[in-house]
Amino acid sequence: xxxxxxxxxxxxxLEASLLTAGQPxxxxxxxxxxxxxxxxxxxxxxxDELKADWNQEDNSRTVELVQVATGYRFQARPxxxxxxxxxxxxxxxxxxxxxMETLAIIAYRQPVTRGDIEQIxxxxxxxxxxxxxxxRDWIDVVGQREVPGRPSLYATTKHFLDDLGLRSLAxxxxxxxxxxxxxxxxx
Amino acid sequence: xxxxxxxxxxSYTATRIKGEPLSRLPQDLYIPxxxxxxxxxxxxxxxxxxxxxxxxxxxxxxxIPMALLTxxxxxxxxxxxxxxxxxxxxxxxxxxxxxxxxxxxxxPKPAEITEEDDPRAELVRRLMEYEAIKLAAQHLDAMPKxxxxxxxxxxxxxxxxxxxxxEVTLDDLMEAWxxxxxxxxLNQHHKLGRAELSVREHMSxxxxxxxxxxxxxxxxxxDVISDGLPKLVVHFLALLExxxxxxxxxxxxxxxxxxxxxxxxxx
Lengths: 187, 267
Description:
The complex is a heterodimer. Helix content of chain A is 41%, strand content 12%. By secondary structure, chain A is an alpha+beta fold. Chain A folds into two domains: 7-85, Orthogonal Bundle (Arc Repressor Mutant, subunit A); 97-174, Arc Repressor Mutant, subunit A (Orthogonal Bundle). In chain A, the strands form two sheets. Chain A has a two-stranded antiparallel sheet. In chain A, strands 3-4 form a two-stranded antiparallel sheet. Chain A starts with 6 loop residues before the first helix and ends in a 24-residue tail after the last helix. The relative contact order of chain A is 0.10. In chain B, helix 3 packs across helix 6 (121-142) and helix 4 (66-82) runs antiparallel to helix 5 (89-106). Chain B is mainly α. Chain B has a three-stranded antiparallel β-sheet with strand order 3-5-4. A two-stranded antiparallel sheet of chain B has the order 1-2. Chain B folds into two domains: 3-142, no CATH class; 183-263, Orthogonal Bundle (Arc Repressor Mutant, subunit A), CATH 1.10.10.
């Protein structure tokens, strides 16, 4: 085995690793590939170049390199999603409105307790809803509020951001975008 | 209940929308009770129901006509009770809250009305926050997700197993094979059936006897005193097998007379 001595080889090593990882690779992960002979800044630069190589204007590539919360990953370009979906006709069941609203509250108001969620939704939180989100690894308990009963504080996970293709919560639309005094008639 | 009675009971002229006296009934104000049953299931709680009413009636959320909203809300809650829907306590709590707000609005107002004095302020704040969450939830729901719309690339490569399989020497293999044989022998021992008593072996025994004795009477072939039944059966099977293969001849002069065995002689 010979250590890479030029940029092309380094990019090829990164490419092969990212393509076979099946999950995002963090900068720390990728530094290991070069056994301590790589600067973080250089790595970032190489990744930017690799990203540009794959995101050709002419759409000649079918996968693209994207950055999400826990690192970098290759994923199919969106225009192929509907075709790929046909491989597994059993789609993931839709989450109920209760689940999605609870998730939205945790995403935008975190860290929150069950009480906070109940206050906003005006109904009791079904423990099943929390469990579903925890099993998906989209939320977890980040602490307890120091009040009687010490209720758990929930927050969204990095895995949640990964699954939604986001680098950080800041990439969600601002909450105020959803607040509207004029409620439109749905016709 | 219809819209006429709704308004008759709550001072029709006092109902204002955006400060304007309500001169005619808004379109689509009344939801037929049959349709209601369909809607009930879909509400996520009292706030959701209130928002639905506000939206349906095109009311200004910042200037909610409490009488109208309360009446409509109560009509729904009554309907829920009527069809014996397990009514969440939250719906009843909201009823009480709406009535309280309505009552406070009927009280003489101070000369200057500030925003904070409006009894509806807290309700409006909650409704607006919930509305925003609802929209945010819809947005999250519609976003592409891994496994649904996002497909992560995962080319295959031969993973180098981190846990190395234990090494096996030829000696280990031999040892294992000996054990298998040993166990197989034990098993054989336990399976004492007539087949295992080796029909072939008994065939040889009979042939050997026929070499020394030219003619054997059938019954002499069987030692019924010292041989067990399985052995006798195998002996008999061996006899049949020999006959089948044409190695012996079985003869009998007439019915019920003694049967004789003799080795076949090549013609």
